[in-house]
Amino acid sequence: MAKNPKRPRDTNQLAKFIVDVATGNAPAEPESNKNPAAVALGKLGGAKGGKARAAALTPAKRQAIAKKAAAKRWGKP
Fold it and tell me: Cα–Cα distance between 16 and 23 in angstroms, integer?
């Protein structure tokens, strides 16, 4: 999370926010509009994506991908 919470643009809301921070009544964490089930599903797919792709590739195709990446990294501009 960000160190500094996002400040409201409205002057009245900003004044309330400043008072809340000064008195220690500011919310600890901003509310999230994300669906927790969707977040968990996204993390699951991201965690297994590279391994599943590597298992599906043939050794020759993996070698071709590695050669192309090495050429791009070490090649002259």
Answer: 11
